[in-house]
Model the fold of this input.
Amino acid sequence: MHNASKHLLFILAPLVVVFALLPGVYQNHLLLFNFVIFLILAQGVNIIYGFTGYLPFGYVGFFGAGAYGFAIMVMHLQTPAPLAVLVGGGVAVLLGLLLTPLLRLSGAYFAIANLAASLAVLHFVANPALEGITKGPYGVSLTGTFNPTHAYYAAVVVMALTVGAVVYLKNSPFGLALQAVREDAVSASMAGVNIIKMRVIAWLASALVAGLAGGIYAWYVSVFYPDNVFSGEFSIFAIVFALFGGVATITGPIVGVLILYGIYNLIGFTTPQYFQLIYGLLIMGLVLFLPAGLVSLATRRGWHVP
Amino acid sequence: MSPEKTPILEVSKLVKRFGGFHALDGLSFHVVPGEILGLVGPNGSGKTTAINVISGLYAPDGGEVVFDNVSSGGVASHKLVHRGINRTFQVPKPFLSLTVRENIQVALAYGGATGAPSIAELLEEYRLKEVADRPAADLNSAQQKMLDLTRALATRPRLLLLDELAAGLNPAELDWIAGRIKALAATGMAIIVVEHLMGFIEQITDRVIVLNAGKEIFEGTLATAVREPQVIEVFLGGEHAH
Done:
């Protein structure tokens, strides 16, 4: 069997089936929804960081832009929710296009500039002068479209598409070329790769993913403030989950979200007083002992991890 | 060199400045298909800068580069690769976390070449078969140089620029790679070799150009070059020239 088919059959399909069926047997639907959102965001980080090496500290900017793209369409144009989600994705892509000059930077400079850009978008959206469009700092209420069940399944669909995109990157010359650009841009150009085009495509793809997730999040929660959907926690969590599992793989970010967000909620429910301590120690341990993520436990032994 | 052939590359009055430093100061030369041209000169004479300009890494500040009758100065590297120029690097630059095979696959997929050699052929010919599925980071420096070369050859260049490919190779490897380079030239590929190893240059080149301070100071065979007072002066200092 072709590798890509194997990855779709043994990674993507079970993931989708499990998350499609879980709401029937597990009552905390909000938690399940958050899992799916973080699976999407962690894979979005994987696309831009794992495959091209840009660490998007302001990744939440696309998520928030998607949420507000959704909200504006629903509030002002009474757009049906699924269409508004697509618009949310489109708004994030437009923001990504606007920010393409950031790709001239690298390393920490890119990360900081991206963080600053996401804060700029937050303050733009939260500006009281724009109350007529975004409701400014007063937040939006979209009770008319409230339908958590549909929103949940929309999230599962976007998760499937996102993981599918990563399967494609892992199994195509395109994904290989992206990794070549990450490893050495000059050599990649001498292999005939148009490095600017490749970086922009990856950047916009990861923006689209976050924008769609943001739109669906807005649909699910239906009442939110700028600070909720532009919260730095989304960026940090998505990055930490992806790194914990291991980037530039299909399974790494999935494992990262399932384990780390699982533990996060477990500690949060059982021993909230030790929450920060245990979580902080976990992440420190990861950075010190497994900088290439959990999957490196296997790759160090020479095993292939998809 | 076959005088009846039209040059595939013509460089005229090329200038490249870095701040106030003229790395290339009016350099002109040409190379014809099937020829192996040596670029020699002391450190800082502009050899690698010339290669970087021809391969599109730097845009020239003056003068002209014409490849296959089309102006190519300042054109992006990947476009030049598609037109038929490729190169190796003084310090090899493979994609370290990708396997040897994947390194070559990228160039085969994106090099835009038709009729390029297969991965199996390249791995076999450049002694990389045993390490094909290892990450490039695991290779020794000679193997990384060969990987750099196969990455370039996978795009089927008509002009190949070799920047100190021979440095660090042992005598047996040198003889072997000299044979490979001559075989490539015999297929009609034009090859420019930047090298400090004069024995190696003598073994493979048809003609050399000696550079000093970004200018050509001699053109001809290496055997003649070493008797030229001006050449001796830039390599060994003024007192040895007379």
